[in-house]
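FW: tagging you since you asked about this chain on Friday. Here's the raw sequence from the shared folder, copied in full. Didn't touch anything.
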Amino acid sequence: MSFPRTRNFATLRRAIGLLRDFRFEQTRPDIFYGNLATDTAELVAALIADLKPSTGSPALDGQLILDVGGGPGYFADAFHKRGATYLSVEPDVGEMSAAGIDVTGSVRGSGLDLPFRDDAFDVVYSSNVAEHVPDPWRMGEEMLRVTRPGGVVILSYTIWLGPFGGHETGLWEHYVGGHFARRRYEKKHGHPPKNVFGESLFEVSCTEGLDWARQVEGARLAVAFPRYHPSWAWWMVKVPLLREFLVSNLVLVLVRE
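HL: got it, structure written out here
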């Protein structure tokens, strides 16, 4: 499958815009996450349109969507505007209320043990969460469990050896080591980082995700690509070692069997 709509969406202009937004993640999360929410909804819509081209209606119209790690609710409006019914699950009460957004259908719970029945959702996705849990592949299996047969799971996460693997602790410090990056951040800022290595930030590789997606029972891997790259750079995912440094954020798209 060639994924023409998704490839047309993944332009260099989009990539540059998303890269510029990263500077607002800590200081203006409304800008960063607001734009990221719009981008995510459009990306999911493009993927569904490619996977199910014969439906004849807007890709997300009437779809029941679960956002695993939905945070304070920035993503809800972006999906509602596209005709989807949106639910989110988030373990941290403080995170859920951080932006003061009231999201109907926001559930407190863990991505490692999703509080939903089997085969409940049309689309289950998670954006930049897997690197924050100690067992990301258990979370992936839970996402598959609550997805109906024929439904789609989209798991996107930050790769540790990429430039943003250390998150707010710096662009190079995590290459020395996660604990070093944490100590340096604390010394510089006088307080721990939001994402604490070994507690709320973990090393997750590109290869681990690809291996899991190819071997997991009950689903097939439809496509894997770098989330923030233009489509002409998707080949990077196929090159061992290089992908760990240059892919930055891996998107795994699985279809539940």
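FW: Residues 96-101 have pLDDT under 50 and may be disordered.
HL: agreed, and Residues 24 and 100 are 18 Å apart (CA to CA).
FW: great, closing this out.
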